[in-house]
Amino acid sequence: MWGLSETSWKGGDLTGRVALVTGGNAGMGFAVAEQLAVHGAKVYMAARSESKAGHAIRQYQQLHGLGAKGSITWLPLDLSSVKDVRRAVEQLRSLEQKLDILVNSAGQMMADYALSEDQLEMSVSVNHMGHFALTTMLLPLLRNATGEDTGDVRVVTISSGIHSKISRKDLGGSWDMDRTFASDAGHVNSLRAKVLRYAYSKLLNILFATELQRRCDRESIPIISMSINPGLVATDGALELYPTWLRGALKAVGRTPLQGANAALFAAIAPEVGLKRAQYRGSYLNSRGEVDRASDIASDAQLAAELWEVSKMIVSKDLGNEDRSEKLTPASPHF
Ligand SMILES: NC(=O)c1ccc[n+]([C@@H]2O[C@H](COP(=O)([O-])OP(=O)(O)OC[C@H]3O[C@@H](n4cnc5c(N)ncnc54)[C@H](OP(=O)(O)O)[C@@H]3O)[C@@H](O)[C@H]2O)c1
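That is the input. Now the predicted structure with NAP docked in place:
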C-alpha cells in the first residue's frame, strides 16, 4: 500500500537505488531523504552547511537506528554558485555510476533582495539556476540509471502554487534573471516584491521541469520529470515567514513536513507513476499527488524552450573558459 501513516511513508523496497535530495537537511527535503533511506535507497543529502547536514543525519539515525535499510551521506552543495554545483557533480560522479532519483527541494522563500556570485537574483539563482545546472550536469548519471533493470528514473522539482501570481505582463517579454519586481529601488524588499521574486522562481521551476521532459522525450531518454505544488506546509523555513506569535498556532494546525512531502515522495517512488508514464510525464502535481493544471504561462511550451536556452547560456558563461570538459556543461549541445 502507498501513502502516509503518522510517521512514515508506506512504500516499496528501494535497495540498490541511488538518490540525491537538495535541501535534504531541512523541511520537506529532509522528509523525502529520510523516507527514501528508510525504504533502502542510498541517499545523498545535498546541503551547503556541514553542521546542518550532520545534525540532520544524526536525527535520521536517532529516529531509525542502525536497522534502517538505506543510508544518508552529506554531499556539499551551494546552489547559489554554478561553480559549486559543478564541483558537487564532479564529487558525485567520482562516487557513483548512476542516479535513479533526483529531488530538487531546496529553496529560498521570499528572501530580501540579494545577488548571487553569478550576479543573478538570489531566488532565481538558488531555486532555478542551481537546479537547472545540477540536473543537466547530472544527466549522464540519470541516463545510466535508465539502463538498469527497473529503468525507472525520476526527476522531481518542488515548485509552488504561488507561481500563478506571475502574469505575462510581469514577464515583460524578456528573461531577466536579476528582476527585483519592485516599483522603485526603495521598494526592493516590500512584501509584494519578495512574493513576486519567489513566485517567478517557482514559475521557472515548472517551465524547467516540463522542458526537461520534452527534451528527454525528444532524445528517447526514458526519464520522468515532474513538478510539485506541496501546498502550505509548516516547515521551519515557511514558519519564519510569519510573525513569531503566530508560529506556534500555525505549527499546531499546519501540515507536517512529512505530510508536505507526500506528493514529492509519490512522484519520486510510487510504482503508479512508472506504470502510467503518459499520464505523469512532464506533469504538475498538487499536494495529493494528483495531476493538476499549472498557470497558462507555466504551460507555455515556447516560454519553456526559451528559458532552457537562456539558462544554458548563463550556466556556460558562469563556468567560463575554465570548463574544458564537454561532459560537465549543461547536457549535450543538442539537448
Ligand atoms: N513550506 C511551504 O509551505 C512550501 C509551499 C510551497 C512550496 N514550497 C517549496 O518547497 C521546497 C522546500 O521547502 P521547505 O518549506 O521544506 O523549506 P525549508 O524548510 O526552508 O528548507 C529549505 C532548504 O533549502 C536549502 N537551501 C537554501 N538555500 C540553499 C543554497 N544556496 N544551496 C543549497 N541549499 C539551500 C536550505 O538549506 P539551509 O538549511 O542551509 O538554509 C534548506 O535545506 C522549496 O523549494 C519551497 O519553495 C514550500
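The pocket of NAP is lined by residues 22-23, 25-29, 47-49, 52, 77-80, 105-109, 126, 158, 160, 230, 232-233, 235-238 (CB under 6 Å).
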